Structure formats: structure tokens, C-alpha cells
Fold:
Amino acid sequence: MIGAGAWGTALAVHLARAGYAPRLWVHEADLLALLTRTRENPWYLPGIRLPDAIRPVGALGEAVAQARIVVVAVPSHAVRAVATRLARHLDPGACVVSATKGLEEERFARISEILTETLPGAAGRLAVLSGPTFAVEVAEARPTAAVLAAADETLARELQHALATPAFRLYTQTDVAGVELGGALKNVMAIAAGISDGLELGANARAALLTRGLAEMTRLGVALGARPRTFAGLAGIGDLVLTCTGQLSRNRRLGLALGGGTSLAEWQAGTRSVAEGVLTTRAALALARKAGVSTPITAEVAAVLFDGKAPRDALTALLSREVRPEEEDDAGGAG
Structure:
């Protein structure tokens, strides 16, 4: 397990419960010492005891030595650097599962694309894990359903059987692009929903944002090669609903803070956690412009995050857009 944030730690706990003895790679030396001494991750997943089967390690080579399955769960901005180091240690034949939701800000790449570039030998043994999954609930073995996507359907089924438990149900997919884009773009919509709730605009406004947000995600995803049906499943609407309404959502909490008058810099200074929607907003907006796709919600979130636009003005701009038939708006285009 590569990455000891909330999600990586929760997945390690899940895998230990499933009968494995996962090695959990921890980047920060101070956190490694805490995990080893207390058997808990107080920085990112407090209150969850690590099963004895989990072995926290600080050396990347030690973490993946002779591993049959390697799960990558580091923040999107760190994936390329970590994977470049990982390439020197990965065993031939190892399966790599990306559990990171996001897009690379500089090159606008999906995580699987980064891993394919940096781990050339693993290209045919690569899968992505996504869906509506709050880390603490997975760690607590609360009922969860998620999606494993791989271009190789046989690989997806093998990993499904290897990683699923009765409390962690996995479905398979071959639409890797759609599953990744759903998991990334919903974070932008969660920031928008949080802003709306922070401004106390009400449940009607939140429902409208979720609905139009799903249309925007689908429109951009299809332009980037995804299948539209994927966005109607767990990696699309499932993750969107969870992230836009759940109290544990980091991206929604960021939006709430922005709606309440806190700046992005102030919010980031007060938390260790990464809100993936921040970097994804820049990447998604660039991809949309390149593809000629209309993404008004993403554009307004970007204006609030990076241009100092007042949150209320951003929501007003969305509400005052030219009215049109719903089917026409869903169809996209540059308007």
C-alpha cells in the first residue's frame, strides 16, 4: 500500500481484514514513528486502530518487495514522483491499482496515464479503484460499493475477487477513462455544492448543482473518451452524491469554508488533508477549453479559488446564465 493518508490507511485496514498482511509505505518519518508506536494514524485517520497484520515501512523498496498487488494512494500531485521511484523496485508481473482520485495539474493527465508513462512494464497490469468511498467508513467496515476498472477485463475480475469482502463490494468496468474522470471531476462539483451550502442557498440549489454538475461531468468525460453510461454508475453519480452531501467530504468542507468567507490559502494553512478538487479544477478547465466543451460550474469554481471572485457572485453568474432547453444544455458545445 503506497501512501498513508486517510484513504491509503483505510485500504490497508480493509486488506488486513480481508486476510492480507499489507506493508504500508509512509512518506513522513514523523508519521511513520507514530504509526509504529501507537498503531494509529492520528494525522489522517484518528480513532482507527491498525490491525497487527499491517506493517508500516519507510523504504519504498521494502514496501513493494515481491508484492503481487501494489495499491497507489498518494495525492495526485505526488503520483509522478513516487511512481518514478517505484519503477526501480516493482516486481515484474505485479498488478498496480490506482486508488488516487484526481488529475495532474501540469500535464492534465489521468492517474493511470501517469502510471503507464512511469511504470512502462506495468501498463497491461494496471487498474483503477473509484466510487463513493469515505475512508473512515471503509476502515470501520461499513457497507461500501466501489468500481475496479481495467482495460483487461480478466485482470479486473481477478482483482475483484482478490480485494472484495462482504462489506466492500466491487464491481468491474473496462471504461478506465470514465471511472477516473468521474472520481476526479466530482470533487470540483463538491466544492461548488459546499459553496452553495456555505451561502445557505438551500436544498433546491444543491440539487440543481448536483444535477447540472453531473451533466457537466458527463459532457467533458465523453469529449475525453469516456462512455456516458459510466457517469450514471458508482464512479459518477454515486461518488458525486456522496462527496457533495456527506459531512466527511474534504472538498465540500472547503466549499463551505469559501462560502463562509475563508480564502483558499487560509483553509489550506489549517489542514493537513488534500482537497483534490483544487488541482483538478485547473486541469479540468484546461481540458474543457482544449476540447471546446462548456463547463460553467468548473469555471466559476476556478474563479473563486484562483481569481478572488466572491462566492456569491459566482453562484449568481451560474443562476443568471441564458435559459435554454435542458437537452440542449446537456449536449454541450462551447456556449
